[in-house]
Specification:
The complex is a heterodimer of chains A (299) and B (595).
Chain A: H1 15-18, H2 31-45, E1 52-56, E2 71-74, H3 80-90, E3 95-101, H4 102-108, H5 110-119, E4 123-129, E5 132-133, E6 139-140, H6 164-171, E7 175-180, H7 184-196, E8 200-206, H8 241-248, E9 257-261, H9 267-282, H10 287-296
Parallel strand pairs in A: 1-2, 1-3, 3-4, 4-8, 7-8
Antiparallel strand pairs in A: 5-6, 7-9
Chain B: E1 18-26, H1 31-44, E2 48-54, E3 63-71, E4 82-87, H2 90-96, E5 100-109, E6 123-127, H3 129-137, H4 146-157, H5 162-174, H6 178-193, E7 214-218, H7 219-229, E8 234-237, H8 244-253, E9 260-263, H9 267-279, E10 284-288, H10 290-306, E11 310-316, H11 333-338, E12 347-349, H12 354-371, E13 374-380, H13 381-385, E14 387-391, E15 438-440, H14 454-474, E16 481-482, E17 486-492, H15 497-509, E18 514-518, E19 521-523, H16 529-533, E20 536-543, H17 554-563, E21 568-572, H18 581-592
Parallel strand pairs in B: 1-4, 4-5, 5-6, 8-9, 8-10, 10-11, 11-13, 12-13, 17-18, 17-20, 20-21
Antiparallel strand pairs in B: 1-3, 2-3, 7-14, 12-19, 16-18
Helix pairs in contact in B: 1-4, 1-5, 3-4, 3-6, 4-6, 5-6, 7-8, 7-12, 9-10, 15-18
Classes of the chains: A alpha/beta (299), B alpha/beta (595).
Chain lengths: 299, 595
């Protein structure tokens, strides 16, 4: 479990190296832009190629690892975060990225979001939120607005949607941002800051489902007559939970940018501290001799 | 029918070889620690021991028993009947007197037990445990320490090694404080010196078990230690009885070995963290008890499909649902083998006793590495919580260094080759061709690309199954205890090992021709069972699960499917307690007699 960090690579990572299978998303799906933005940011940060790990659960956006030529793992529905937690804790040398949608992250995997956040596991999580279940073809999702019709709500959705921002703030995430797949520059900036943040960093990315939810985010796309309203970071106290909660109250379409950012020891650091302490008490004894000693104490 | 030697009051000339002592009180009285001290003493004096306890599933308190079977030679079961009963309260006395054999001895707390039933030649000896302890320790109104008083009393009655016992207590209580140690020794000495006029002392014969490094402990501890010796350095879990003590142990111990154990928000997260660490190149474990395993089932199907090595511990308890959370049962065999979705092959191993927990865990580690698939360790509440004494494992022979293979993968690397066992390239390993694999739960081709091709799914399903077929072919036929051929073969798995072995010996000493086997590799089953079964007229499978719709227990059902042998019959028990030897001998005799 020791640190196997290596020096930064001499060669620059190219887009060609990062591209894998041709994405199977529908034409004009917002997720294409998220993929392009991810390529841009890891190239800019020049993360060693073999140290990048893409993790996903189930859903349209969760196909992400197949489209990136890095180590990747496509897991089961809703459990991408705990799987990534296992990777991050056991391999501190890796850069762990989790991709998924609103169903994966806020519904079937909802509880894991709270716990990954409170434990402050060191990883970056991009939620491609399209307010609908796309892979199963148009059912209500945990973020579907009240009144919106789907195959499971033919009369329009009746349940109060999840507020991902306020949930993340109250569960103790240390970096919370919100961006929009149509605003590439802003998305690049949010992803870069999330990656550089030590601890659990989440970027909720509105990503339009052109098939089942077309036009859903037009109200925040300037060229379609909407307003892309940014968080005023000069005026905003990013370490204030109350201010982040205030910002979270209205998300239709709400503000974009960093809602909350603070430093707190990561789960990775805290666990490692225990390992280091435990081993310093043992000294030069080999692991095998340590176990022999344990048996001797049971005689 | 207990075969334990009879410690009759009159017969004090010869040393006794076996003693079954049942301590009955409330769970807060510390009767478990009497048992633990006797167990540790047995371990260090070349005797054998097996304990059995009931734990109330209430939060605090409630009636509880601890039974200790001490033996100079092999001890295979916790004892069908007690030779000595120690009753702390009237209810303990009322509820447990029937477990005492005819002519047995009952020590009771004369401060608490008021009514005595003179029956079956039982010798009653009233000792004021409570007031004598208070007096010994020095007038404190508390009765804490009466368990240690009783330990002193038993030490005197059975003429156990007093010096060694004091030393063990010194080690335990000395850690706490000098006051506690002094009070404990005062209580012990008072118990030891208490005059028991009604009976002679019954000295235990010296232990005759070999080995100079004998330890005594429980099954969950031995699983945890086996996992460490096998190279496990990452684990994740969620608390559930009786699995929890493994996670507590690993949480404290693994950091010393440069590993970690993480408590998770739920069972689904726990198995996912373990799979994350497995994907990262570590040997990882998760575990639980029945209901928790049901929650992990989806992710374990994934592990079969993605071919990730992971060790899964299931400490079985009475089910289904919350069931009997603190009692023993063997009803999760089918869940362990088949409990997922789709065709999801995995390996299932069952330890037969406390000592075997270590070697089973070690083998689970080896098989998970070799076959890159989930491996279950299917233990149960009885093995998990009871104490046994045995020679400690030789770590010069039984030790695997943890490994993390981050070597560069060459041009011939494929994550899912059809002609070889999968060896994943963990993240951090470079690829000479610059192409990186995706580990996936979608059906995939050799490169890990999703594929719905009909032939490919057929071939990949066969690939995942055939590695277990290869394992099965390498497994030797279990060793037969008793007669190599004859009228009856008793077939067991897991913790029925002891009672079945003892039943075999008793049946053979009564003139029957009986053999028995214990199957550690419950899935895939080992070689040679079909041929072995043909050497006997009858096959009887004692299992602590229900006989189900068709009259056969879970292993018996599988054995019938594998061997098509119509002689296979079941004897089942679901009472939350282990088989008594007598129950197996009676079922065997009835089967042989054609009743």
């Amino acid at each position: 479990m020791s640190d196997t960090t290596s020096a930064a690579p001499a060669e620059k990572l190219t887009k060609k190296q990062l591209k894998a299978d041709k994405p199977t998303w529908c034409p004009a799906c917002g997720d294409f832009a998220v993929l392009a933005s991810f390529f841009n940011v890891v190239q800019k940060l020049n993360i060693p190629h073999e140290k990048i790990v893409c993790v996903a659960g189930i859903g349209c956006s969760s196909r992400f690892p197949y489209f990136v030529n890095t180590h990747g793992i496509h897991f089961i529905h809703g459990r991408a975060l705990p799987l990534a937690t296992g990777i991050s804790l056991s391999r501190p040398d890796l850069h762990v990225f989790v991709f998924g949608g609103d169903g994966d992250g806020f519904s079937i995997g909802g509880n894991h979001l709270n716990h990954a956040a409170r434990k402050n596991v060191n990883l970056s999580y991009v939620v491609m939120d399209n307010f609908v279940y796309g892979l199963t073809k148009n059912q209500t999702s945990p973020t579907t607005p009240i009144g919106q019709r789907s195959k499971t709500d033919p009369r329009g959705a009746i349940d109060q949607p999840i507020n991902p921002m306020s949930q993340l703030v109250s569960s103790g995430a240390t970096f919370i941002a919100r961006t929009h797949a149509s605003q590439v520059k802003h998305m690049n900036e949010m992803f870069e800051r999330a990656i550089l943040h030590p601890g659990f960093a989440v970027v909720e990315t509105l990503s339009e489902c052109t098939m089942f939810n077309p036009g859903s985010f037009d109200d925040s796309i300037p060229r379609k007559g909407g307003v892309f309203d940014l968080v005023d970071e000069e005026a905003q106290d990013l370490e204030s939970i109350a201010a982040a909660m205030d910002l979270s109250q209205d998300l239709s379409p709400g503000k974009f940018g960093v809602y909350y950012e603070t430093k707190r020891p990561t789960k990775n650091e805290l666990e490692r501290e225990w390992l280091t302490d435990a081993q310093s008490k043992i000294g030069d004894l080999s692991q095998r001799d340590l176990l022999k000693q344990r048996f001797a104490s049971m005689r | 029918m207990s075969q334990t030697a009879t410690p009759t009051p009159a017969d004090s000339s010869s040393d006794i070889r076996n003693a079954v002592i049942r301590l009955a009180g409330n769970s807060q009285d510390g009767i478990q620690s009497i048992g633990a001290f006797l167990g540790q003493l047995a371990g260090s004096t070349a005797q054998e021991v097996m304990t059995y306890m009931t734990i109330p599933s209430t939060i605090s308190g409630g009636p509880s028993i601890f039974q200790v079977h001490l033996g100079s030679g092999e001890v295979l079961h916790p004892g069908d009947q007690a030779d000595t009963l120690v009753a702390f309260y009237q209810h303990s006395y009322e509820n447990h007197l029937h477990t005492l054999k005819d002519g047995g001895i009952c020590f009771y707390d004369s401060d608490e037990v008021e009514e005595i039933k003179e029956e079956r030649g039982i010798i009653h000896i009233g000792v004021p445990f409570t007031s004598a302890t208070i007096e010994a320790i020095g007038g404190s109104a508390k009765s804490r320490g009466k368990n240690i008083f009783v330990l002193g009393l038993l030490c005197a009655v059975y003429q156990l090694d007093r010096e060694r016992l004091s030393e063990i207590m010194g080690r335990k209580f000395g850690k706490k404080s000098e006051d506690i140690l002094r009070n404990a020794m005062l209580a012990f000495d008072a118990g030891y010196a208490w005059p028991v006029h009604d009976i002679e002392h019954m000295p235990m014969a010296p232990g005759e078990n070999e080995g100079d490094k004998r330890i005594s402990t429980d099954g969950n501890t031995m699983i945890a230690l086996g996992l460490i010796a096998g190279g496990v350095r990452f684990g994740a879990g969620y608390p559930i009885t009786p699995w929890t003590t493994i996670m507590e142990f690993l949480r404290s111990e693994l950091p010393k070995y440069d590993g970690m154990f993480i408590q998770c928000e739920d069972e689904l997260a726990a198995v996912s963290l373990a799979l994350g660490a497995a994907y990262s190149g570590h040997l990882a474990i998760t575990g639980s008890s029945g209901p928790g395993l049901a929650l992990k089932a989806e992710a374990l199907g994934y592990a079969s499909m993605a071919e990730l090595p992971v060790i899964v511990v299931n400490i079985q308890r009475g089910g289904p649902s919350t069931g009997l959370p603190t009692s023993v049962e063997q009803s999760d065999l089918m869940q362990a083998i088949y409990g997922s979705h789709g065709d999801a092959p995995r390996i299932v191993l069952a330890p037969k006793n406390v000592e075997d927990c270590f070697y089973t865990a070690l083998e689970a580690c080896r098989l998970a590495r070799k076959y890159s698939t989930p491996v279950f360790i299917l233990s149960d509440q009885a093995i998990a919580t009871r104490l046994e004494a045995f020679q400690e494992p030789d770590l010069e022979e039984h030790w695997e260094e943890p490994t993390l293979d981050l070597s560069e993968r060459g041009a011939d690397f494929k994550p899912y080759p059809l002609d070889k066992i999968t060896r994943h390239s963990p993240p951090g390993a470079r690829s000479s061709e610059g192409k990186y694999p995706v580990v996936t739960g979608l059906e995939h081709d050799e490169w890990g690309h999703p594929s719905g091709n009909p032939d490919n799914h057929q071939k990949m399903t066969e690939k995942r199954r055939n590695k277990l077929v290869a394992l099965a072919e390498s497994l030797p036929t279990p060793e037969v205890h008793g007669e190599a051929e004859g009228s009856l073969l008793l077939v067991g798995w897991g913790s029925t090992y002891g009672p079945i072995k003892e039943a075999t010996d008793r049946l053979n000493s009564n003139g029957q021709k009986v053999g028995s086997i214990n199957i550690r590799h419950v899935h895939p089953l080992p070689n040679g069972l079909t041929e072995l079964f043909e050497k006997y007229d009858h096959i009887l499978v004692p299992e602590m699960n229900d006989s189900g719709m068709y009259g056969y227990g879970q292993l018996a059902t599988l054995l019938r499917a594998k061997t098509c042998n119509a002689a296979i019959k079941s004897v089942n028990k679901v009472q939350g307690i282990s088989f008594r030897v007598k129950e197996i001998t009676e079922a065997s005799e009835a089967l042989i007699a054609g009743k």
